[in-house]
Design brief:
mainly alpha; binds fe (ii) ion
Length: about 150
């Protein structure tokens, strides 16, 4: 497996995990800001859900197979999400923020690998994903203010 295949598989797995996390929080969040929190989480999970397909298709472009078994996807990244059913709204946003920051770091690695291999199209895709996750990070951080993260 080359470096690009490895990092794309890892990012695909991370996308599956943040998808499950944001959708699960969308279902379970409670509090005075329920309506807007519920809608914000929907925006995130719809965006990351679409990215899963793009990771898979980019894997196929470099002649690698795209994993789809949930266990296999689970094993492809060490990222752990907090799937407790007892989190407050604030704890959910802190947890989601932690996950999102790890994805941003991995996207930076992926961009470097794609660029090194002169896979410009994939590098562009990863740069776009970094931009989108940075957008979510801004909104998560703004949601959490003035709480300490
Ligand atoms: Fe829903």
């Amino acid at each position: 497996m080359n470096k690009l295949e490895a990092v794309l598989k890892e990012l695909q797995s991370m996308a599956m995990k943040i998808y499950a996390q944001s959708h699960g929080y969308h279902w379970n969040i409670e509090g005075r800001d329920f309506k807007q929190d519920h809608a914000f989480l929907l925006e995130i999970y719809e965006d990351v859900f679409d990215s899963i397909d793009a990771y898979a298709e980019n894997l196929r472009k470099i002649k690698a197979k795209s994993p789809f078994g949930l266990e296999q996807l689970q094993q492809n990244s060490a990222l752990k999400i907090n799937d407790s059913l007892d989190l407050t709204a604030e704890q959910m946003f802190v947890e989601l923020s932690k996950t999102n920051l790890q994805i941003i770091d991995k996207l930076k690695d992926g961009f470097d690998v794609a660029t090194e291999l002169r896979e410009q199209g994939i590098a562009n895709f990863l740069a776009d994903r970094q931009d989108k996750h940075s957008f979510w990070q801004w909104q998560l951080t703004a949601t959490l203010k003035p709480n300490i993260m």
